[in-house]
Specification:
Blueprint lengths: L5 H6 L32 H16 L4 H7 L2 H13 L4 H9 L3 H6 L11 E3 L4 E3 L4 H9 L11 E5 L4 E8 L2 E8 L2 E7 L2 H10 L7 H11 L9 E3 L10
Parallel strand pairs: 1-7, 2-3
Antiparallel strand pairs: 3-4, 4-5, 5-6
Helix pairs in contact: 2-3, 2-4, 2-5
Length: about 240
């Protein structure tokens, strides 16, 4: 699901997030949909430590493309600048700087990108997974492809508006299951998680509530600080 270099997908990790052991943060002021969150430049030393650790993991990953990316001085400089400018918080940087490998970053640290300030879950392009030839043609012919854009939403049960949404934040891409006006699973940040959930989603029409319960038990919240506001396609908030 990544469309950016490991470095950017990694260090984006947990903007505005808190770990489970951290003290709860004050509730941020409500924002209107699309309003930018205020940012404070991140600590330069913390950015430097985390960025260089991630690049070192990339070099030792055994993947030629990642290793090549990690050797590029311009990429390093851009990542450091983004870290400071976009206000990636200490919790994110600690997670990245202590990760033993890239898999840990993908499975754990990247989820933190969606925590902190309340996240607007507003669908962009909407696709129906109803199995008709017309819809299959629409999905196959979508430009860009389905789930290429932030907010792409595939609906599996229209009665409960139950489906899967792709969100991107601070360079990290994740999938969320939304049913009945609430996020029931997510953020899903690994291929294994996404594949497992997508395999279960066709059961939504047989009972969205039971599906949501089953998925929630298999995929406990990976981001305890995540809070969401769900909207319908018209931009109106949906009550859970």
């Amino acid at each position: 699901m990544r469309s950016v270099p490991w470095l950017l997908a990694v260090l984006a990790l947990g903007a505005c997030s808190k770990s489970e052991d951290a003290a709860p943060s004050p509730t941020p002021p409500m924002r209107s949909p699309g309003q930018a969150e205020p940012t404070v430049p991140a600590d330069g030393a913390a950015c430097d430590q985390a960025v260089r650790h991630v690049f070192d993991l990339m070099k030792r990953s055994g993947d030629r493309d990642l290793a090549k990316e990690a050797e590029d001085d311009e990429t390093v400089a851009n990542a450091l600048a983004d870290c400071k400018r976009q206000a990636w918080p200490p919790e994110m940087l600690v997670c990245a700087g202590a990760a033993p490998d890239l898999a840990t970053i993908d499975a754990s640290c990247n989820k933190l990108a969606f925590g902190g300030a309340e996240l607007d879950m507003k669908p962009g392009r909407t696709f129906r997974a109803d199995g008709t030839q017309e819809e299959r043609d629409r999905i196959a012919g979508a430009v860009p492809k389905m789930f290429a854009l932030d907010g792409d939403f595939e609906v599996f049960d229209e009665a409960t508006n139950c489906g899967v949404m792709k969100k991107k934040r601070f360079g990290v891409e994740a999938m969320f299951v939304i049913c009945g006006g609430r996020v029931v699973v997510g953020p899903l940040t690994t291929i294994a998680e996404i594949s497992a959930v997508m395999g279960e989603m066709p059961k939504a029409s047989a009972g969205a509530a039971s599906l949501a319960s089953a998925l929630a038990s298999r995929f406990p919240p990976g981001c305890p600080s995540c809070r969401y506001r769900v909207y319908d396609a018209s931009g109106a908030p949906v009550a859970p």
